[in-house]
Fold this sequence. Notes:
Layout: H1 9-18, H2 21-27, H3 32-44, H4 57-66, H5 72-78, H6 82-85, H7 93-104, H8 108-120, H9 124-134, H10 137-140, H11 144-150, H12 153-162, H13 169-173, H14 177-197, H15 209-221, H16 226-236, H17 242-251, H18 254-267, H19 272-279, H20 286-297, H21 302-311, H22 317-329, H23 335-352, H24 359-374, H25 381-390, H26 394-407, H27 415-419, H28 425-434, H29 440-451, H30 457-468
Helix pairs in contact: 1-2, 1-3, 3-4, 4-7, 7-8, 7-9, 8-9, 12-14, 15-16, 15-18, 16-18, 17-18, 18-20, 19-20, 20-22, 21-22, 22-24, 23-24, 24-26, 25-26, 26-28, 28-30, 29-30
Amino acid sequence: MFDPVITSHDALLGLLRSGHGQGARRALVADRVAVLDALDGCVVRDPRAVPATESRSLYYARLYTDLDAGLDGLARHLLCDDDWTDEDADRTALPLAVLGTLARLGRVDATALLREYVEEGRDWPEALERLAAIGHDAALAGLLEVVLDRGEDDELYDCVKRSTGMRPWRVWAAEDERVRAVVEQVDLDWWRWELTRSVKTPTGPTAPAQTVDQVLADAADGPRQSLACGRRLSAVAGPEHRGAILAAAWAGPDGARAAALRYLGEQGDGALLDLAEGALAPDAPAVVRLAAAQAVGGLRSPAAVARARGWAAREDLLGEVAVRILAGAGETVDGPILLEALRTRVAASMRAGDPITDQAEHFRLCDLVAGIGRLALVDALDLVKGLYHEAASAGLRACAVRTLARIEPSFAAETAVEALWDCQADTRLIAARHVDARRPEAVTRLRRLAGDPAEHDDVRTAALARLSEM
């Protein structure tokens, strides 16, 4: 059974900040005053290292609903002088997203606060978009005059262009000539963009060799453009250009060398195995090392696995790349290598501080954890379970949950139940598919997920499927 005891306020705050399912469950039985203070703090001070990669709005909105929490804290944060003087772009994003989700869940006070912010706030276009997403005309009633007073034509143009489904602008275009002109201009610009995009660039054997030379020259002139130039090579290069690209990868200028390596990686070219030791050497230029690490690390051929086994013991970038290859394509015999690599990474990260907030480390750990799950290495259970509990990154936690579903004997009855409360839809989806639906807590939560209009469609579908099996 779930243990409701909370050892400290800081522990609960950490769980809530990371969007952990355990945090949501514990919040429901903790001291109410402390929980509400922590909840407001999480929303007004966005805890995500990279907001675009992690969801939080539904997680926090559900807590506001379940705790019947007021919105005074969010109102004080949004409707104050700092709203116009603080230039932090993330200051209002999460609060407005949470209010939008609450409004979709039927909280009329959230709708009212969004409307007030449209009238008074700096980031009113975002609040307007949240109101439009509710899907009820009443949420937008009377705001046309407010919007016309607040926005110049160029600002209205940006609002319309960013609008999802163009709501409510098409309705307002029928009522106001100024809005109609903006909507028509956006439609025209989108049509022109689609027309331009439909013009095809010659690719493959029909592309002249000079095109490849020009891309490599552009990459040499601007090494920072090596990623884009690598993609351009994929669009213009044919088999007859392989020799020139290989030459650039071996000994070209830094930017051209990096672009060529990226192209070879996209093609899965085995020549990368011979290029690896030089391109990943400590004295190689940083742009080349980065491109080589991504290109070589993405190889999954038997030849790559064989070569990686010889590199795996090295304590440099080549050894790190080798572990990534083995995680993606190795066999059970490579399990001890992956297990030791995970153990070493976790220990080193813990010595350096919190490992899980570093984005580069996040991706390395995800690769390892995914490989351990693919090979079902049960000896890694304690390490993966530790990552699941400690990860501040919801994405890393989702990786851990996928692996735990394969290696943890009690996953369906324990971890999966807790993961139904997680902030990340991927994690809730895995949990819904595997959870022991006979447990009362699981049944209650599955019913909530299945009937929640704000829930992701695939999670709702999975929850309904599990309930139908009962």
